[in-house]
Amino acid sequence: MYEQHFGFREPPFRITPDPRFLYRNPCVEEAAAALAYGIERRKGFLSLVGEAGTGKTTLLRHVLDTLSGNVRTVLLLHPTVEFDEILEYILSELGIPIEGARKLVLLQRLQEFLLEHTRAGGNVALLIDEAQDLAPPVLEELRLLSNLETGTEKILQIVLAGQPELEGKLADPSLRQLRQRIALHIRLRPLSPDEVTAYVRTRLELAGAARKDLFTPDALAQIA
To answer: What is the pLDDT of residues 51-103, one digit of tens each?
Structure first.
């Protein structure tokens, strides 16, 4: 009802991570460019860290939509699983048969696919959201997974996106080898009060609002 009253084409403040509604301030633009650069240039491990609600998932989906066509991507949204399940999920998303195969065979199949895809000019990226929930043994196995490479380049790029707890987890001495492999550490900061105002007005405009002043300055200050 309120959409019709205010003339919106659709709700402006859905909580789902719709990349069409990405608010692109300088911090977000820089983070998006760094993620795309790290993936396209085969930098291996990348990390994206931001507080809850700063738009990490929306940014990841935006990056997925903007990568060049030669990049195959796998987005993992539920990381509270064992590494073997992650491995099976990656292969399934890439269309690689997994039926009845044990872990070593699955790793061999993945390596063969990645090498063939790379020789054909392709690239593969695994993006893991909520990565702060990954168990240390799983993170260590992901590090070993990054050993899949040619003599000159990484054939699998891995993005770890999570809340600041991810940095604390990576600071553990037992994960120092993984931490050393992260080529780019990218951060999303919370919005400033002025940016909150711009964010709200941007979403109103994208939803079809004829007016941008639907929220009073006091209301916007309360939101901020």
So the answer is: 999 999 999 999 999 999 999 999 999 889 999 999 999 999 999 999 888 99
Q: Which of 14, 11, 33 shows the shortest CA–CA distance to 24?
A: 33
| Whole-number Å distance between alpha carbons of 111 and 104 | 11
The token pair at 66 is 């903007």
For residues 175 and 203, give the distance between their C-alpha atoms in angstroms, rounded to a whole number. Answer: 40
Contact by Cβ (8 Å): 112, 166? no
Pairing type for strands 71-76 and 45-50 reads unpaired
In sequence order, the 6+-apart residues with CB closer than 8 A to the CB of 222 are none
Reduce the DSSP state of residue 186 to 3 states and report it: strand
For residue 49, what are the contacts with CB-CB under 8 A and spacing of at least 6? 161, 162, 163, 164, 166, 167, 185, 186, 187, 188
Spatial contact of 21 and 28, defined as CB atoms under 8 Å apart = no
> For residue 84, which amino acid is it?
D
Angstrom CA distances, 58 to 72, 115, 161, stand at 19, 30, 11
pTM of this prediction exceeds 0.90: yes
**What is the distance between the alpha carbons of residues 200 and 205, in angstroms, rounded to a whole number?**
9
Alpha-helix residue ranges (DSSP H) falling in 23-164: 26-40, 56-66, 83-93, 103-119, 136-145
